[in-house]
Amino acid sequence: MVLEIVTSVVLLVVGIAVLVIIHVCMVGRTFRMNQESIESGTLVQSSCTISEDDIKKLPWYDYKMDEDDDDDDDVDEKKRTAECTVCLEGFKVGDKCRLLPNCSHSFHVNCIDSWLIKTAACPICRTCVDLRTKLLEGK
């Protein structure tokens, strides 16, 4: 009887120790991954900012549908997939749209401007919007 109790207590202590070790390893791995992401710049950091003047310098265009295809199904598919992910509205011919320089994602000008004032990162891929990168590539 005593041997069974001792065995049960030992197994309980060993089980708890294994769970604690697994937990510590998982937390440590997650912490290291977050640190690596921050150091490599893949996570949006609070230092990712852009001024309102720089926002106004971002490229923009008037949206237009490519009517080259005669297939109505292709045109309908393009209309359904071409939308601003900030307001979730589809682009209409003549809408003023802005193209982000680092990732080439498009949004309505008003939508992305108000977004970038709060968070200077693309709402889709979370890439920091940086005009200097595009300017350096152009040289």
UniProtKB/TrEMBL annotation:
InterPro entries: Znf_RING, Znf_RING/FYVE/PHD. Pathway: Protein modification; protein ubiquitination. PROSITE patterns: ZF_RING_2. Residues 84-126 form the RING-type domain. One of its GO terms (cellular component) is membrane. The keyword Transmembrane helix applies. Keywords: Membrane, Metal-binding, Transferase, Transmembrane, Transmembrane helix, Ubl conjugation pathway, Zinc, Zinc-finger. The chain crosses the membrane at residues 6-27. The keyword Cell membrane does not apply. It is a single-pass membrane protein. It is found in: Membrane. GO terms for molecular function: transferase activity; zinc ion binding. Pfam families: zf-RING_2 (PF13639). Its main location: membrane. Belongs to the RING-type zinc finger family. ATL subfamily. PANTHER family: E3 UBIQUITIN-PROTEIN LIGASE RNF13-LIKE, RING-H2 FINGER PROTEIN ATL18. This is Zinc finger, RING/FYVE/PHD-type.
